[in-house]
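User: Could you go from structure to sequence for me? I need the amino acid at each position, not a summary. Structure tokens:
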């Protein structure tokens, strides 16, 4: 897989997610997850080995812990300047 073509725009709109206080969530940073906007490990498909055999993790999930139980809006376009939260960047993305 060509990681240089990532992140993939999953959707040009955010997703409302109900989170629970104290629970940790993993937001997809690469756009490959089938569970958007959350991570399912799809980013591992673009990991490569360098000349020394060292694993190069080009993308990893962004883990965050909810401060309170509430509905939040998570980014799907992967262009937000405030990850994992939507900041409206999808309005300027061509999918």
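Assistant: Here is the amino acid at each position, in order:
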């Amino acid at each position: 897989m060509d990681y240089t073509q990532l992140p993939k725009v999953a959707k040009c709109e955010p997703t409302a997610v109900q989170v629970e206080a104290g629970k940790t969530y993993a937001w997809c940073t690469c756009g490959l997850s089938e569970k958007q906007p959350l991570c399912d490990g799809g980013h591992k498909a673009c990991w490569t080995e360098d000349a020394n055999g060292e694993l190069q993790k080009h993308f990893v999930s962004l883990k965050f812990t909810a401060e309170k139980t509430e509905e939040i809006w998570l980014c799907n376009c992967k262009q937000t300047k405030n990850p994992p939260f939507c900041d409206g960047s999808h309005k300027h993305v061509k999918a």
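One structural detail worth keeping in mind: DSSP finds no helices and six strands in the chain.
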